[in-house]
Amino acid sequence: MVRRGLLQSAYPLSMTSRPSGFRRDRFTAFNYAFLAYVGYLAGLLGPLTAQLRKELSLTYTLAALHSALWAGGNIVAAIVAPRIAARWGRTNGMLLASAWSVIALFLVFFARSLVLSLPGVFVVGMTFGSMIIFSMAALSDRHGARRSSALTEGNGFVSLGMMTSPFAFAMLSGTALGWRGAILVAGAILVVIVAVLRTSMPSEK
After folding, report:
1. What is the largest CA-CA distance in the chain?
2. How far apart are CA 97 and CA 127, in angstroms?
3. What does the buried/exposed string (b/e) look like for 98-130 if buried means 16 or more CB atoms within 10 Å of the residue's CB?
4. In sequence order, what are the residues at sequence separation of 6 or more whose Cβ sits closer than 8 angstroms to the Cβ of residue 20?
5. pTM
6. Residue 41 half-sphere exposure, CB side, CA atoms within 13 Å?
7. pLDDT of residue 126
8. What pLDDT does residue 203 have?
9. DSSP state of 23
10. Residue 199: what pLDDT?
């Protein structure tokens, strides 16, 4: 009994077990899938920038503008996403952001100059940040006191997506699709998520 008491004092309940009643329902799966998708987008940035620099004969400075605009898109998302959720709800905000991410990805897909690639990367960065905000906030609302478990697992799915996209990029670069095939995979992933797992999300409070 003494040993058990010492163990519990050293490792609180929150560290030794998952909060009781944590349920990974369809709603949670929808958000986890979206977080994996946005992680996939984030993982594309590095290899995509390197490939664009090579194809467009860019200097390192010009190529780095893609990363700068991605970050700028994240900043804009932090400003506009809460307003979008308050006005139209998180479900519509998530679907709107995902639709714009596909449009932006195809700008990059067809880019033969900075005129298309820079705006495309900026909008992808903005939709990335928006979807993170919508999804994390929705998970927090749904799971309440157990939100830490949901957010921890959600971050794990973001990491999974970030690890998957460079692998897909490298594998597809050696095929007839080329590195742009990794962009097509992103679009396919999104279609599957929306078609199979779409569910309502609580509105912004």
Report:
1. 70
2. 5
3. beebbebbbbbbebeebebbbbbbbbbbbbbbb
4. none
5. 0.81
6. 34
7. 96
8. 45
9. -
10. 57
